[in-house]
Design brief:
By secondary structure, the protein is an alpha/beta fold. It has a four-stranded mixed beta sheet with strand order 1-2-3-4, covered by helices on one side. The chain is built from four helices and four strands. Helix 1 runs parallel beside helix 2.
Length: 123
């Protein structure tokens, strides 16, 4: 039995990073995803886009890595968006209520508007 393999590629442009993942994301490889995203934060990246075009499998470990990273990234004032998931992966993301991870243009949704501060909302 062969071990799952994941290749992680990073391309930076000013304060944005594109992380391209190739292969399977599971219990064995999810730490690679987490590390790549954490490294972006350490490097002062303000926007992280993750290209999932070449991801052939993603289990709950992968989804958890993205959810944890989203929380850390958001707390740091940075943005994280997933792009081009497979239909199966997009469905799992939506079913679990994690659709906020997906780039809104690709899902046909728009981000919810925030209530203006003067109306009692957050910045």
């Amino acid at each position: 039995m062969s071990l799952p393999q994941l290749n992680v590629y990073r391309y930076d442009s000013a304060t944005r990073a594109l992380i391209t993942l190739v292969g399977e994301i599971d219990l064995a490889t999810a730490p690679q995803v987490s590390e790549a995203l954490a490294e972006c934060l350490r490097d002062g990246i303000l926007g992280i886009d993750v290209d999932l075009t070449a991801v052939t499998f993603c289990d709950v470990s992968g989804l958890n890595a993205f959810l944890t990273a989203f929380r850390l990234v958001t707390d740091a004032g940075t943005a994280l968006q997933l792009h081009y998931p497979s239909q199966a992966m997009a469905r799992i993301i939506e079913i679990t209520g994690s659709g906020f991870l997906l780039h809104p243009v690709l899902t046909g949704r728009t981000r919810p508007r925030r209530i203006p501060v003067d109306a009692g909302g957050a910045l």
